[in-house]
Structure formats: structure tokens, C-alpha cells
Amino acid sequence: MTSIIKILPPQLANKIAAGEVVGRPASVVKELAENAIDARAKSLTVIIKDGGKTLIHVIDDGNGMSREDAALAFERHATSKIATYEDLENIRTLGFRGEALASIAAVAQVELRTRQASTDVGARVIVDGGMEPTVSPDAFPVGTSVMVKNLFYNTPGRRNFLKNNSTEFKHIFDIVQRTALAYPSLAIRFISDDETVLNLQAATLVERVKDIFGEKASQTVFYFKQESDLAIISGLLGKPDFARKSRVEQYLFLNNRYIINRSINHAVFQAYENMLEKGSFPFFIVFLEVDPHRVDVNVHPSKMEVKFDDESSMYKFVLSSVRRSLSEHDLVPKAGIREESSMEGNLGLRFQHTGSSEERAASWRDLLKRDGASAGTTELYGARSVDGEMKTSSQAAANPQASTGSAAVIWQVHNKYLLVPIDEGLMVVDQHAAHERVIYELAMKRFAGTHAKSQQLLFPQTIDMTPGDAALVKGLQSLLEALGFSLKFFGKTTVIIDGVPVDVKPGQESAILQNTLDLYKEDEHNLKLEPREKLAKSFSCKAAIKAGDPLNQPEMHSLLDQLFGTEIPFVCPHGRPVIVKLSLAELDRRFGRTS
Ligand code: ADP
Ligand code: MG
User: What is the pLDDT of residues 479-499, one digit of tens each?
Assistant: First the structure.
């Protein structure tokens, strides 16, 4: 038997930030569980008593240690996982600092038993309060068991610092749960004060979510995966209807290590922008896989903080990946009573929400039952709504028969909602919210640089503004111009509009500008949104058709065409639903039809 553990040279040891490894019982559980995983265990048992204060016992069926290593493992900076600084830069194991066992043994009574498959005789090591280990042969199954008794018995100060048993239990529970989510194929048993808290079989991630959070939760998440040169991101995203009132159920793992990173969490949250009510948070379990060279996990001994070499690219990657995954899923809020909806099976619009906006709009048009008859121009405000950026509507204008010539009749009710027959039943669309979404995305595209088309006004309009509003217009002038406004100042507070974005309704030019500014001001102190987003939101709200505006068939078809050409047709920029679906199954049920 040879020893594989090496003592780190002092220089390297110094490079590794010093700090406390063992803060509370949960940190002991975390370190021991990580060692088991590094040893390639397939099953893990965690037994605690009194919130871990009197006993923490972790048993694994991993590789085990030789007798020599079993004793050496308790030396400070003893590790089999890295040997050089280069290794430190390329960490693929959870442990590497070589200080967990040493630290634990310094403040508790520890008994370690272990055996490797290559030998019949295992080893038993006893260390008491950091004294020299005593080693003896032992009969033990392959794997390792570490029993930690009376944590902090020799450091009364630390011991008194511990919280009550139930608080310490909760911390341990969190650690076990995170481990369970990060390693679904690891069987885990967790026993506290002789009661089995968790008994998890090896599983897939979704099965594990079901075992931990329940059936309902597992049905409201979907798997996603995206890749780039920077990283691979995958995991489970909760649908907006499963949003939570707190951030507790958000799990982020970097190279399978649970981490806390506000920036990445925020990126995921941001991707749900406008899909969630205020004050609710998405449920997610996100795994990032990043080349270890690109990330420093050695910021703190707990290794829960990490530093990315390029934080802002990582932010963008996470944001865009999650956003894309969300938009590829049918996130239309279901009509009807929520509890019932699980019985309906998958009611997804059979609509591929991928591809270019034209492809999306085309796929959407296929959905419409072609039994009605109506033709004509498909523009919302006559020719003025034709915008080079919205090819769907301009194509439709060129060849109205092709796109909507024989499409279904859409009903407008109360000049507010559109009733649209689809294969699976009926779709109800809020006309204002739909148009808002269309204009919002166009505005954001224009900000992103695509050249805005401006409609020159025959009769420029003059607005006398308050000094405050005039200053606001000055500050936003470049964004307003990117949007398609053409503005001139006359004196300090008089603004002349001589051009407007093509989506502005004729005759409403100055009202829309003024109302947009008013709405912008309401949101002005919202630091979470960039000015351009705030402007796009307020402009889309004010420029969009209103509830109460009558629409004819071509206008309604054009609106739906444009809506389904957007990235996220299902929610308006303020987070309200745009579409509610009523499935045939749901209607049948309500009318008592059993077929
Ligand atoms: P680190 O995990 O940072 O290397 P530790 O003090 O946690 O440091 O462990 C020291 C060494 O003891 C590890 O590198 C590993 O070789 C060995 N070891 C610890 N726990 C186990 C285990 N459960 N199974 C096999 N080997 C282990
Ligand atoms: Mg370790």
C-alpha cells in the first residue's frame, strides 16, 4: 500500500487563504459529505444528534484510504487532491485545502474508520482534540466512516456561540438538501435524533426534485441546457406560475459546488423579467460548468463564494440562456382554476416558439383554423404601421391572401379582448397588452442599434413643457431619437416634434410623448431597470392601442402576427399575461362532456 497524500509546501499553504473551516455543525457535515463525494461514493449516510452538537456521523461507500493515509489525513494541509499551484488553478474536486479533517479533529473527538477495496484489513484512527492520532487495524466495509463527537468540547467559547438544536439542524438539513440536488445519483440517508428525515434513492434530477419538493413542484419545472465557449448551463427552471414569495428556493451550482453569487442569481431572475408578479421569485436549480481556470473558488474557506475572471460575460451568458430557454417554452398562463390544471395534461400551444420572427409568425398563422374568410390590408394604422423591422406585417401587406386570406374570423369583445379559435380550443388575447409587447420589443431592438424609421410630420408639433420635463427630454434625447422621435428645442422649455416613431398613432404625437414622459417619471427611481428599458416600457404602454379601440379583422390578424413574431408573446412588459388559453378539454369538462 502506498501513500497518496502529500503535505503542501508552506508557500502554497500560504497562498490558500487562511480562515475558519469549521464554524458550526453544518460545516462539518459539508466537509465530510464533500470528502465522500470526492472519494466517489455512491451512497451517503448522515446521522446527527442534538443538531450535530453531540454527534455527527457520516458514512460513505467511496474509495476509502490506506492505513497510512488515514493517519496522515488529519495533518493540516494534508490532501491527495492537489500537489502544485497549477493544480489549484484546475480544481475538479470539492476539497483541496487539506484542512477539514485537521480542523475538525482539533475541536472534537473524532473516530475515522476506513477500508480500500484492495485490502481486507481496514484502519481505525482516533484523534481527540487535536492530539496525535492512534491507528489500529479494523474490520470495516469498503468506504469511510467519520464520527465526530462533542464538537467544540474543548473550546467553550465556540460551543456557547452555537444556536439551539433546531436551528443547527436546519443548517445541516440545508447542506444535505443541496448535496442531494447537486448529486441526484448519490443515494442519501439523513437521520436526526434517530428519525429518518430523508431517504433518497439514486435518481434523476427531476425525480430528486419530486422526492424533495413534492410532485407538484416537479411538474412545474422544466429541464434546460445551453452551451457557449464560456460555459455550459443546465438545470431546472420553475414556470412563472410556480413562483415563490422568497428567494429561498434558488439553487446555483458551479462545477457541482453550491455557491452563492448575487450577480448570477440576478441574471437568472432578470431573465424572468416581466413574467412574474412583483415580489415573487422564480424557483430554479441551475448548474454552471466552467473551465476551472476561469474561476477562483478559493476566495473563502467555505468555498461558497467564487470569482469569475469575466463576471459580466458570465452574467450575459446566464441571462440570455435562461431567457431563451424560457421563451422556448409554453408559458401561457392557463385559464381556469389552477388546482385543476394539472389534470389537463399538456395544453401547450402546438407552436414552435423558436426561429426567426418571420418563422414564428408563420408557424403561428398555421395554428389559426382556416375556416373564416377575410382579406385586405393587415396594417394596424394603415400604411403607417409598416415598419421595416416588422417584416411579418410588411410581407402580409404585400400579399395579404397568402397570410390571412382564408384565416379564421377573430372576434373582438368589448373592444378589449380578441377571441381566437385555435386547434386546441380558444385563445383570449388582451389587445392592449399584446400591442404593448410588440412595441416594447421593437423599441428595445431600435435601442440595440437597428436603424429606427421615423415618420416625418407634415406639421411639426410644438409642446411647452415644464422645466423639469424639458430637462428630462434633454437627458433622454438620444434614446428618444433612437426610438424614432425627431426633436428640436426652441428656447429652454419648448420642444418641437418633427418626426415620430412609425408606431405612433396620427394625431396623438405630442400626447404620446408627454404621456410617455409622465410614465417614465413614475419609474424613474427604479434602479433595477436601465433608462432604455424604462423608456421602452412607458413608450410601449402609451403608444399601444388601448382597451376601447375598435379593430377590424385585418388589424386583429396583423396584431396577432406581430405578437407571435416577438420573443416573449405571452406576457406584457409589465408582467401581466397577454394570452389566456381555454382548452377544449377544459370547456368539455365545464360543460360536463366526458368524451
Ligand atoms: P481535502 O478534502 O481538502 O483534501 P480533508 O482534510 O478534507 O482535505 O481530507 C484530507 C484527505 O483525506 C483527502 O485529501 C483524502 O485523501 C482523504 N479523505 C478524507 N475523507 C475521505 C473519505 N471519506 N474517503 C476517502 N478519502 C478521504
Ligand atoms: Mg475535504
Answer: 999 999 999 998 888 999 999
CA 188 to centroid of ligand 1, rounded, Å: 19
Pocket test residue of 91, 97, 101, 142 for ligand 1, highest count of atoms within 8 A of CB: 101
Q: What's the pTM value of the predicted model, to 2 decimals?
A: 0.62
Best residue among 28, 72, 79, 119 to mutate for probing ligand 1, ranked by most atoms within 8 Å of CB = 79
Ligand 1 center to 381 CA (angstroms)? 71
Alpha carbon distance 376, 397 (integer Å) = 8
Mean pLDDT (whole number) for 309-334: 82
- Alpha carbon distances (Å) from 445 to 225, 367, 452, 536, 566: 26, 27, 9, 10, 11
- 573 compared with 110, residue with greater pLDDT: 110
User: How far is it, in rounded angstroms, from Cα 285 to Cα 331?
Assistant: 18
Closest by CA to 366, choosing from 561, 235, 183, is 561
pLDDT of residue 18: 27
DSSP class of residue 577 equals: B
The pLDDT > 70 percentage for the chain reads 81
Question: What digits encode the pLDDT tens for the residues 89-102?
Answer: 777 788 777 788 88
User: How much distance in Å is there from the Cα of 82 to the middle of ligand 1?
Assistant: 11
Alpha helices in 431-508 (DSSP H): 431-447, 467-483
Using CB distances shorter than 6 Å, the residues near ligand 1 are 5, 31, 35-36, 39, 60, 62-65, 73, 78-81, 95-102, 144
What DSSP letter does each residue of 371-386 carry, written as one string?
T----S---EEEETT-
The Cα 316–Cα 270 span in angstroms is 10
Q: Is 446 helix (H, G, I), strand (E, B) or coil?
A: helix
Whole-angstrom Cα distance, residue 82 to residue 17? 15
HEC profile for 53-97? Answer: CCEEEEEECCCCCCHHHHHHCCCCCEECCCCCHHHHCCCCCCCCC
Ligand lying closest to the C-alpha of residue 91: 1
**Residue 62 CA, closest ligand 1 atom number:** 24
DSSP state of 355: S
